[in-house]
Specification:
2% strand; disordered N terminus; mainly alpha
Length: 405
């Protein structure tokens, strides 16, 4: 009886073990980080797509943060509740709050946070590849062939510099928009969950990532002095190919982002006074010397999100005279109105005014009809004027909608 029991038990264990082995299979429909970044080509492709992801995380999502920020900063004005723009247009301003049951701001946060983590994972995979003797270059460096080794080393370092740049951009954008975020950095395990840190700490780490990117991108790698460029496809096309090396244009771009982040993260006058303005100025003066813009729309992969709605109708976006009126050169008491008269009036009694200025970003003319005629539809992002006097057959025939501010 005892023998039968043990034989039966052993058989049951064997069957159970067999069932467990049969069910213990890899789910190829749910790839993990190691398999996604298993080879040089996938590592480099992930890094190369980083700027597009960073761009879209800010300007294109299903949430509504950026349209609210535009209105909050007086870069635009609308009374519509679409994208929650209207509630942010009042004076005094109310903060954009991320509360349960309120407006969804999670998508923007999640997109930037996950984009930074993906680049961290790519750097970790690249470092492991290089440690094992591999490369994202044309071939594994060959002993006795220094030219090939230099080229491969330069390509690895180009990829590494770009990845650090993207991590810095993603975390810098998080610090600019949110009061806290998770700090990610190369070397951390793919499954680790960082705690929330203050925006000051997030920005400090973003600056460190940009520092590292600049340090790598500014060097000449390899015994033959080989340097490579960041291909324009990595930076949104539009002839944005940028060189590496001590006087390269890619380090200049890194410095441009670093200057913007250092200057823009401050929330209060005290924080603004504490900004390292000497470093901001140094970076700005040694940054890019021509405009940096991406080719967006269509099949480019770069989205413009809410910006496509800005010219739908006057109610979607108008420019408040609070800031833009400062360009007006009219004198107080002018029959056509002036910024000075408008600003002096109480909000309930403010009148339409004609902003007249030699600034080419504004439509020219001493009458509204003349300004409407000069409000030609732009043909490119460099076209003038930037600003239209609506109605009259210019950019569109929509009349202005009254409102305050």
């Amino acid at each position: 009886m005892k023998r039968t029991f043990w034989l039966t038990f052993a058989a049951a264990v064997a069957v159970a073990a067999g069932c467990r082995d049969a069910l213990d299979v890899t789910n190829t429909n749910q790839p993990d980080v190691a398999r996604v970044l298993a080879n040089a080509a996938s590592i480099e492709a992930t890094i190369a797509a980083g700027y597009q992801t960073a761009h879209n995380a800010v300007l294109y999502s299903t949430s509504v943060l950026m349209p609210q920020v535009y209105v909050l900063a007086e870069e635009g004005y609308s009374q519509l509740n679409n994208f929650d723009m209207g509630p942010q247009g009042g004076i005094p301003r109310s903060p954009i709050q991320n509360l349960r049951g309120g407006t969804n701001h999670f998508d923007d946060f999640s997109n930037s946070q996950r984009a930074a983590r993906l680049e961290v994972n790519a750097v970790n995979a690249l470092d492991a590849l290089m440690k094992a003797g591999g490369t994202t270059g044309t071939a594994v460096p060959v002993v006795g062939n220094p030219a090939n080794a230099a080229t491969d080393s330069a390509q690895d370092m180009r990829d590494r510099a770009f990845a650090f740049f993207i991590i810095g951009v993603d975390q810098g954008q998080l610090a600019m928009r949110y009061d806290s975020a998770g700090i990610v950095h190369p070397g951390m395990p793919a499954d680790s969950v960082p705690p929330l840190s203050s925006y000051q700490d997030v920005m400090a780490d973003a600056i460190r990532m940009l520092d590292t990117a600049e340090a790598i991108a500014s060097k000449t790698w390899g015994t033959t002095g080989v340097t490579l460029s960041v291909d324009q496809s990595w930076l949104g096309g539009n002839s944005n190919t940028m060189s590496l090396g001590p006087s390269g244009t890619f380090p200049q771009l890194i410095r441009a982002f670093r200057a913007r982040f250092r200057a823009g993260v401050a929330r209060t006058p005290t924080e603004r006074a504490a900004v390292a303005w000497d470093k901001v100025i140094k970076d700005a003066e040694s940054s890019i010397t021509k405009d940096f813009a991406v080719s967006s729309g269509g099949s480019t992969g770069y989205r413009i999100g809410y910006s496509s709605q800005q010219n739908v109708a006057a109610a979607w976006l108008q420019l408040s005279p609070i800031y833009y009126g400062m360009a007006d050169t009219s004198h107080a008491g002018d029959p056509l109105g002036s910024y000075r008269d408008w600003l002096a009036a109480t909000p309930a009694n403010r009148m339409y005014i004609l902003i007249r200025t030699p600034d080419k970003r504004f439509p020219s003319g001493d009458t509204r009809k003349a300004q409407q005629a000069s409000s030609t539809k732009p043909t490119s992002w460099t076209s003038h004027p930037f600003i239209a006097n609506r109605g009259g057959g210019g950019v569109d025939n929509n009349a202005d909608d009254p409102g305050d501010p």
